[in-house]
Amino acid sequence: MRCPLPFAAALAAALVFAVPPSRAATDEAARIARAVDDTVARYGLPGIAVGVVRDGRVVAVETRGELSAGGGEPVSPDTLFKIASNTKAMTAGVLARLVDAGKLQWDDPVTRHLPQFRMHDPWVTANMQVRDLLIHNSGLGLGAGDLMLWPEPNDFTRADIIAGLQHLKPVGSFRSEYAYDNLLYVVAGEVAAAAAGMPFDELVRRELFEPLGMDGCRVGQWRLDQAGSVAQPHRRVDGRSVPVREDGAVVPDITSMAAGGIRCGLDDMLRWVGMWLDPAHPWLSPAQRRAVWTAHMPMPVSERMRQWDNSHFSAYGYGWRLSDVQGQWKVAHTGTLMGMYSSVILLPDLRTGIVILINGPGEAARTALGQVLMEQAIDPASRSDVAHYAGLLDQERANRAARQPLPDTSSRRPAGAAEAAALLGVWRDPWFGEVAICPRADGIGVASARSPLMRGRLMRVGERWLVDWDDDSVDAEAWLHPPSRDGGDGATLTVSHVDPDADFSYDYADLAFARQRDCP
User: Could you please report the per-residue DSSP string of 214-274?
Assistant: First the structure.
């Protein structure tokens, strides 16, 4: 049964009245609050919720800002945020529960549960196991096929994902190297649903939310007016936080559910973290806890990890990233969606967990704040602060921009029909579907048939072709590369990023369009 107060607030209150806080605890809480304030001030965040747990107790709960900038409704410990890819650990946990229940095994072939499953290579299809779906070792490129998931809304289904995988060509060998993907987590959700004999959203409620008391979380379709406090995503426009892609009255069942579609509040995320920090918790068997937190796929140790954390190893478990930080074992993950950022950091040997939820452009904010809170947990005498790490991130960004400067597109102009003749027509990619490059009132339009936000205007930049998307929230402009032949049937149209540092989920490199017919 849910506590009368949100979990974090209720437990924190109980601690206050049951045990007077020590001077050290009071100092720690003040330092955490100061770090949150510094982060909000530095990055102009619309809203944030932060919690820290240790030894089974909540030691800090901090919320700032609003659900929607200027709306006046404050963020609270039970405000729902999109946790994005922190969903992956929940999907892995549900699968581990099914292994405990004897419904499946980690080494089951995927086709045992989903006979229609196909990868590009028949050998990979036959040999891919359930475990492989979770550890980013498929041979697919970074974010391959993500355009079937985002931007939302679109009309791709989970069945489309499974059907489309066979058309995505690998860029590496199966099980040889790490490359982050989302589509195979969608497949993992469908494997879980098939093994359990129920839709994935119902399975998550039964196996995760109910036994752990996380009944504030939402998955699948739900009504906004029945969910209480719900944060809306934001982007920065002229230095202000502006809501983007806000929820309607009914939040739909999204295709990416098992990869990044769960929403939770801070109180329920602290329940989730608390379970993992308690090795005796009965939600999972000891064997499955070990399986989830085993290093299954090596990952590169970045220069930042070496310099900031003195890290020596990095690997992916089932839905979690594993590494060492200043001699401590770290289990963590981040989550990123348009206008929503999350971070979960666990230090199991210290029985400490950190949760950060942000409803605005928060990549740098969660990184700097998470680093400070983690260092303070490892060494209470740490003097690290948000300004220091924010400065390092600014320098990283400047160095990256110097190495890969953005192309100058200031000379862009609307393309004319005559000069774009070789591009005009309806084109089709085998997994993304049709895109029409056809005249419209303001020039030449580029419009996806299945992803309505992927519509824009064809521009000329020198000798190159650029797509300027109509919706400003689609923040990855594209170069179109005309067919090498004259645009006739069978010629291939390809796409690439204008900004080499753009969101990898706009996986233009995986697209290859063949011309189908003339414009209507």
Answer: -TT-B-SSEEGGGS--B---EEEETTEEEE-S---SEE---TTHHHH--EE-HHHHHHHHH
In whole angstroms, give the CA distance from residue 15 to residue 277. 19
Tens digit of each residue's pLDDT (9 = 90 or more) over 393-417: 999 999 999 998 999 999 999 999 9
Percent helix, strand, coil in the chain, to 5, is 35, 25, 40
Instruction: Give me 294's structure tokens.
Output: 């085993």
- Over residues 288-327, the pLDDT tens digits come to 999 999 999 999 999 999 999 999 999 999 999 999 999 9
Q: Round to whole Å and give the CA distance between 239 and 248.
A: 26
CATH no. for 16-100+186-399: 3.40.710.10
Name residues whose C-beta falls within 8 Å of residue 95's C-beta, 6 or more positions apart in sequence.
104, 130, 134, 188, 191, 192, 318
Contact 231, 75 (CB under 8 A): yes
Question: How far is Cα 280 from Cα 329, in angstroms, rounded to an integer?
Answer: 19
Is the pTM value of this prediction over 0.90? yes
Reported as type and span, the H/E element at residue 376 is helix 363-378
Residue 495: strand, helix, or coil: strand
Kindly report the backbone phi and psi dihedral angles of residue 492, in degrees, each rounded to the nearest multiple of 5, phi listed first.
Answer: -115, 130
State how far Cα 241 lies from the chain centre. 20
* SS3 state of residue 306: helix
Is the sign of the CA dihedral 388, 394, 395, 396 positive or negative?
A: positive
Please report the sign of the dihedral spanned by the C-alpha atoms of residue 411, residue 485, residue 435, residue 511. Answer: negative
The total number of residues shown for the chain amounts to 520
* Paired tokens of 218: 């939402």
